[in-house]
Specification:
single chain, mainly beta, seven-stranded mixed barrel, two-stranded antiparallel sheet, 9 strands, 0% helix, globular
């Protein structure tokens, strides 16, 4: 799986693109708009996805701590984050 955030970090209610590349849990790629990519872990939880993002540093040097996110898809098909 590949998860792409349109910002340099994830936040509550933010959009995320979920691309199923056929990879099995738990390993996945987590990409941010500033070009930073990290290896995360995911699992399915009913219709939702639980995504663990490790600590990383943005391209501007800001340290971001490890976080766990619940990803839920709206009726319109848009994936959004909720911090767990």
């Amino acid at each position: 799986m590949r998860f792409a955030f349109p910002h340099s970090h994830a936040f509550r209610g933010g959009r995320v693109t979920v691309e199923d590349d056929g990879g099995a849990p738990p390993a996945c790629l987590v990409e941010f708009s500033d070009g930073v990519t990290v290896m995360g872990e995911f699992r399915h939880d009913g219709p939702d996805i639980v995504l663990d993002v490790p600590a990383y540093r943005t391209s501007k040097g800001t340290d971001v701590g490890a976080r766990r996110w619940r990803l839920s898809r709206s009726e319109a098909g848009v994936w959004r984050t909720t911090r767990m």
